[in-house]
């Protein structure tokens, strides 16, 4: 009963002890309390009860009862870090028990071998136990044993065997009322889905298991550890670190299992390293390593040591000693049959390369590269990275490019299994090293065309296909509606000066629920297999020039495309350009308010410095036609119209050259519907909307109560032109919840992704609507990038806060030009020129950017 209804079992056991029971019955009651405390409470209390249960079993003169308690005690001692005492308890239990009881003891010893990382011993014991349990028709313990065997198979990389055992166990659980074990089965299926490379299914199953555990009121430390693994694979390392640290704090608070604490610390160390925080990774991994050593868990200790060395290398350390340490770890992991062995060989090869130990590096990388042919996608990625580095060490530029191509193809296939655009974007971080290697070889040995091709290969790939539309999931839709209502109530309360902590807590909870459900969506759109064609780009450019900025070793490389050729120019340091762009953004925020005119010359001077850093000599080679800028993700906030050579030009921005080509070749929808939306709370009340409406015959105008999210989405779907005047909010902490304020609450990025086709052209007359979060290798998340894959060919949006009153004349001038047949970029250029020459209006014009090609 303790794994069917844990808290009820605890109460019943305590009730038995209040009735002056026989030693036999008292032994059972103490054992139940010990199990409850061992798994969900204080280990010290657990050990006290289990020792008492063993004493009472001996007094009852029941060898079978004593053997059973010894097995439970053995598990508790192992989890408490007292490995030697735990194994001794199992030895006594095996000797005391017989038949069916001995099989249960063997199962629990197998479980403890798994906890300790002794996978072969675990398999031996569980294989001895299963036939006896089946013969005894013990459904519950047979299902547990099959689940354990599957879990051990997963640790050894045998995914197919694991799935067969999980399937058999689940069929048995369905015949029982063991609710905790059923939740554990769902969790185990989530782990199997992850090991087979299905991240959305893994997240869905782990969330389902958590809901089941919550109904039972039991903590979920093993689930926390497993979800951390999945989150890291999904590119969500900061979230994995936060989850691991929070679970560790809970575990410490209840005096829980020492073994689980060590595993949580290891998960935190891995997450910190992936999140770019090597200092935290070193601290967590060092403590985990000490705990594993004290618990005699060599398999785990070796994994902690691997993370420790990876984190030290990330701080810039490299030495012959670290090479030797990494190679020894790789040999030990290989002997264990651990899937992490190729990662260790790759690490040893990388450090050796950094020291110019070419022969050693080639040897280690060659071993690591063997994993490129089989296994889950991220394991094959490790192999292709090793192959690329091996080719670089041996001087084969062609070999480097081939390995990078094959590795990125693997990651492409993996990305397309992810339905959520956020996961697709973040997953690209796994390919950053391969893309950088290929770009470096192209810079050294190839021409500008080859460098352009490789710069495009891994740029804004999340935008190459539309995200999978969220399914008609009633829970997701109701969650989004509830989020909108709570967010609107919280906003109203803030404006009234009332406290909103309860509303904000509920809003955060609903955000987590909505995001969780979107991350469960599996990708259904296959890659089209098309590769970027430089010739097609040059043909479509005509008189225009496309400037793609690649970053190699921290320096900007300018690739100027047009006139039938691609030329390369040297730019400045990316870090200096980022600092200058941040200064400009701060100045534009200040210029959005009257009285800051004195800053205008400083902003213009910053624009000149940005031009030197970002365009260099290419600024004088732009010709007289339109210019398309393709910046790296980290420079998305540059106001390009501020650069002197671009100030009087038709300028548009695209996340990639491929994206510009797609936008250029997108046909406008039939019918030519125009939709104008006015949200609440604007200082001008969206004053441009009535006048703009007069230019387009009979447009759809949504304002006041009509400007509600469901109606707005309905009208936006498939429109030729949409103009939205509304307050915009950018969420750096959660970019998919960046929003436009409507009458019934925020219209968020997730809402836009429900459109069958977003408007062909859309003008966002709002603050911060062009602000985007840089994630993954070179990806962007936010309002603009949500629209581009869904059929929008052109967007006007602002990258900074703007003055509402100054926006009105800019928008009126913009629409005057659009109504004559100009493109968005042409109309924006003319609108800037038509504004008054004062600092406020000039800053407003610079804050807006044209994206795409419409």
UniProtKB/TrEMBL annotation:
InterPro entries: CHAT_dom, TPR-like_helical_dom_sf, TPR_rpt. Residues 46-73 form a coiled coil. Residues 605-852 form the CHAT domain. It holds the Pfam family CHAT. Keywords: Coiled coil. SMART domains: TPR. This is CHAT domain-containing protein. It comes from Streptomyces phaeofaciens.
């Amino acid at each position: 009963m303790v794994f069917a209804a844990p808290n009820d079992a605890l109460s019943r056991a305590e009730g038995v002890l209040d009735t002056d029971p026989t030693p036999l019955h008292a032994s059972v009651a103490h054992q139940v309390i010990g199990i409850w405390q061992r798994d969900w409470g204080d280990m010290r209390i657990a050990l006290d009860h289990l020792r008492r249960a063993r004493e009472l079993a001996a007094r009852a003169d029941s060898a079978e009862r004593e053997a059973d308690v010894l097995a439970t005690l053995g598990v508790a001692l192992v989890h408490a870090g007292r490995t030697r005492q735990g194994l001794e308890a199992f030895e006594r239990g095996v000797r005391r028990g017989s038949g069916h009881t001995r099989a249960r003891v063997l199962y629990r010893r197998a479980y403890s071998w798994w906890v300790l990382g002794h996978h072969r011993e675990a398999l031996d014991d569980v294989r001895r136990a299963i036939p006896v349990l089946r013969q005894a028709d013990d459904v519950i313990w047979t299902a547990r044993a099959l689940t354990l065997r599957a879990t051990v198979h997963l640790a050894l990389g045998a995914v197919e065997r694991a799935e067969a055992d999980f399937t058999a166990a689940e069929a048995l659980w369905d015949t029982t009322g063991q609710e905790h074990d059923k939740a554990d089965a769902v969790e185990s299926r989530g782990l199997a889905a992850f090991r087979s490379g299905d991240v959305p299914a893994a997240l869905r199953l782990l969330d389902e298991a958590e809901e089941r555990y919550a109904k039972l009121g039991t903590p979920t430390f093993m689930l926390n550890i497993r979800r951390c693994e999945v989150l890291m694979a999904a590119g969500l390392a900061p979230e994995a670190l936060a989850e691991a640290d929070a679970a560790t704090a809970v575990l410490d608070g209840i005096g829980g299992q020492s073994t689980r604490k060590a595993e949580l610390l290891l998960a935190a160390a891995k997450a910190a390293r992936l999140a770019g925080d090597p200092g935290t990774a070193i601290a967590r991994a060092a403590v985990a390593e000490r705990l594993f050593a004290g618990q005699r868990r060599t398999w785990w200790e070796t994994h902690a040591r691997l993370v420790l060395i990876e984190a030290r290398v990330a701080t810039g350390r490299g030495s012959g000693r670290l090479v030797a340490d990494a190679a020894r770890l790789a040999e030990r992991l290989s002997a264990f049959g651990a899937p992490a062995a190729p990662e260790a060989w790759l690490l040893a090869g990388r450090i050796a390369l950094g020291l110019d130990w070419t022969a050693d590096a080639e040897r280690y990388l060659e071993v690591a590269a063997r994993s490129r042919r089989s296994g889950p996608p991220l394991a094959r990625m490790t192999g292709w990275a090793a192959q690329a580095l091996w080719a670089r060490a041996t001087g084969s530029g062609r070999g480097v490019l081939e390995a990078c191509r094959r590795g990125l193809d693997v990651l492409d296939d993996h990305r397309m299994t992810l339905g959520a655009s956020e996961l697709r974007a973040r997953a690209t971080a796994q390919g950053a090293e391969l893309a950088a290697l290929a770009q470096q070889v192209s810079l050294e040995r190839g021409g500008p065309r080859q460098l352009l091709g490789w710069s495009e290969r891994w740029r804004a790939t999340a935008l190459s296909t539309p995200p999978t539309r969220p399914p008609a999931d009633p829970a997701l839709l109701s969650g989004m509606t509830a989020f909108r209502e709570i967010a609107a109530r919280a906003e109203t309360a803030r404006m009234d000066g009332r406290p909103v902590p309860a509303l904000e807590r509920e809003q955060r909870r609903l955000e987590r629920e909505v995001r969780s459900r979107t991350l469960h969506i599996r990708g259904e759109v296959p890659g089209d297999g098309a590769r970027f064609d430089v010739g097609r780009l040059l043909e479509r450019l005509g008189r225009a020039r496309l400037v793609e900025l690649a970053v190699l070793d921290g320096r900007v490389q300018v690739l100027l495309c047009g006139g039938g050729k691609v030329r390369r120019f040297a730019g400045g340091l990316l870090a200096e350009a980022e600092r200058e762009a941040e200064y400009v953004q701060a100045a534009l925020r200040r210029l959005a308010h009257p009285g800051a005119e004195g800053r205008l010359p400083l902003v213009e001077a910053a624009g000149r410095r940005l031009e030197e850093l970002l365009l260099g000599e290419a600024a004088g080679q732009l010709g007289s036609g339109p210019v398309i800028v393709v910046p790296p993700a980290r420079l998305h906030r540059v106001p390009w119209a501020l650069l002197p050579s671009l100030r009087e030009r038709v300028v548009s921005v695209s996340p990639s050259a491929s994206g510009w080509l797609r936008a250029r070749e997108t046909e406008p929808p039939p019918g030519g519907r125009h939709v104008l939306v006015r949200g609440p709370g604007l200082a001008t009340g969206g004053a441009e909307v009535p006048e703009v409406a007069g230019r387009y015959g009979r447009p759809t105008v949504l304002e006041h109560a009509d400007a509600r999210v469901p109606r707005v989405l309905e009208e936006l779907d498939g429109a030729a032109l949409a103009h939205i005047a509304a307050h915009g909010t950018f969420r750096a902490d959660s970019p998919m919840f960046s929003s436009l304020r409507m009458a019934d609450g925020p219209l968020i990025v997730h809402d836009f992704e429900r459109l069958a086709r977003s408007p062909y052209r859309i003008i966002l007359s709002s603050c911060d609507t062009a602000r985007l979060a840089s994630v993954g290798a070179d990806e962007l998340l936010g309002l603009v990038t949500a629209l581009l894959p869904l059929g929008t060919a052109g967007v006007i949006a602002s990258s900074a806060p703007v003055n509402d009153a100054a926006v009105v004349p800019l928008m009126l001038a913009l629409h005057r030009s659009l109504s004559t047949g100009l493109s968005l970029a042409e109309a924006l250029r003319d609108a800037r020129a038509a504004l008054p020459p004062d600092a406020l209006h000039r800053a407003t014009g610079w804050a807006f950017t044209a994206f795409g090609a419409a």
